[in-house]
Amino acid sequence: QVQLVESGGGLVQAGGSLRLACAASGITFSNYHMGWFRQAPGKERDIVAAINRSGGSTSYADSMKGRFAISRDNAKNTVYLQMNSLKPEDTADYYCAARYRNYGDYDYWGQGTQVTVSS
């Protein structure tokens, strides 16, 4: 059974930082590209950042560049999202996802962790 379990969300003041983690089980983690997504209330789910199997290549949505950093530890089957200089508009549920193919839809999703940024 595949499980992706996010942690690290919470309430933080604007300008603060949070580090999200997503622990994977039931898959050969190093075979999967990983992504972080977020969904704000009343909005669609959007990509935040992605990282390839080895961790050697990352990509970010434009609004996150320079503030967020995605990383992974294949020995720990975990992907991270370091979020700095948080803004109220970063408030959302954050989800991690795993994709086996190089492109296309993600295969597995976590249940999400809530991030609230107060002004």
Walk me through the structure.
The chain has no helices and eleven strands. With 119 residues, it is an all-beta fold. The strands form two sheets. Strands 2, 4, 5, 6, 9, 10 and 11 form a seven-stranded mixed beta sheet that branches. The protein has a four-stranded antiparallel beta sheet with strand order 1-3-8-7, with no helix packed on it. The protein starts with a strand and ends with a strand. The mean pLDDT is 97.
In short:
This protein has 119 residues and is an all-beta fold. It has no helices and eleven strands.
Largest sheet: 7 strands, mixed
Secondary-structure element order, as H and E? EEEEEEEEEEE
Q: For the record, give the distance between the C-alpha atoms at the N and C termini, rounded to a whole number.
A: 40 Å
Low-confidence stretches: none
| Share in β-strands | over 45%
Cα shape: globular
| Rg | 13 Å
Find the count of extended strands (DSSP E, 2+ residues).
11
Work out the helix count. 0
Write the layout of secondary structure elements.
Blueprint lengths: L2 E5 L2 E4 L4 E8 L7 E7 L5 E7 L6 E3 L7 E6 L4 E6 L8 E8 L8 E2 L3 E6 L1
Parallel strand pairs: 2-11
Antiparallel strand pairs: 1-3, 3-8, 4-5, 4-9, 5-6, 7-8, 9-10, 9-11
Q: What would the keywords be for this entry?
A:
single chain, 119 residues, mainly beta, 7-stranded mixed sheet, 4-stranded antiparallel sheet, 0% helix, 52% strand, globular
